[in-house]
Amino acid sequence: MPVAVYILGLSVFALGTSEFMLSGLLPPIADDMNVSIPQAGLLISAFAIGMVVGAPLLAVATLRLPRRTTLIALISVFGLGQIAGALAPTYEVLFVSRVVSALACAGFWAVGAAVAIAMVPVNQRARAMAVMIGGLSVANVLGVPLGAFLGEHLGWRSAFWAVGAASAVALIGVATRIPHIPLPEKRPELKRELAIYRDRQVWLAIVITALAAGGVFCAFSYLAPLLTDVAGLDSGWVPWLLGLFGVGALIGTMIGGRVADAHLFGVMLSGITASTVFLVALALFASSQVAVVALAFLLGLSAFFTAPALNARMFNVAGAAPTLAGATTTAAFNLGNTSGPWLGGTVIDLDFGFASTAWAGAAMTALALAAVGMALHLQRGDGDGGRTRSRSRLIAKSAARGAGRPARVGSVPADGRVTP
Hints:
By secondary structure, this protein is mainly alpha-helical. The protein is 78% helix and 0% strand. The chain has helices spanning 3-20, 26-33, 37-61, 67-87, 91-118, 125-154, 156-177, 190-194, 200-220, 223-230, 238-259, 264-284, 289-317, 322-349, 356-381, 388-403.
């Protein structure tokens, strides 16, 4: 795996820490900014919505720009957004800084995914995406608990300064280690890239990703009150349980990334099925402290075991437009990260209790399973079964040309450099 892919994973660590750390910083932010906790919670929604909107918009806006230059610009803007948040004198300024950071984060994810895919052969796509997603997993293991620790002992602004520093390290890595990827001789055409949205398999991939992610985060977003109010655990356990979810996510990413290339649908079916079972178990045994602790780990494992396959699937069905494929996947995941917590909040407001979020999440993942079955049926009906290898090679060549990579599949230089 090229070193540059790991640099992208390091960058995603900073992005992911910023995205999720607010869950442990809402009370001090609300106190300092003189707003309610629900108002402070809108900062999380603002980031997720910015990711949904920003990914495709920035992918289109930067379609004809050099990839490395685009990544440098986006990680720089993201870092400046963290500094603006740390210095924000009012809630409104902090809100705007979150939106700007989300837009830069979305663009980096979209372009970075396309760059990672362009640097590896087709049979290592899921592994490359697993490295990037691994950065997000490590953010959940280390970054988010560390942000909560800094917020408790040094004030919430210190967490923003820490992410800003991590962004500076990522910027150095991107500037020095990401290879120059030349633009193709024929410049990308927006109309041609947008043609991927005429493919029903692309839309099925979006639905599967959004439902699979949304189902898990429907319950995970309200794990803290479930732990304290239903399971009866002390609030001091919350950071540890969040970290345990992250450990499961990291292990799941490592395993899923290694097997997804060879068993794409198998990983999606088994991973989403496992998430459904674990969510049902969480709903049934929410009052059991031992069960809740174990299920927090298992949900992280199953959700992130599936994630590399979900990413690779999108690039397989939309390989002729690699940048928009990455942007679409980013938007789909954040649709889930937005709709899942919204659904969870809705069932809580209807007085069904915190455990009901797990039932709602299981319903979402069950729908995702049905969508996977439909996608598999369509693929077999199109006669893909016997031609998967040849079509994958054609997709890889098309994706390589779209990203400016020589249309050759099977190996990359040892140092990961891509040259004309």
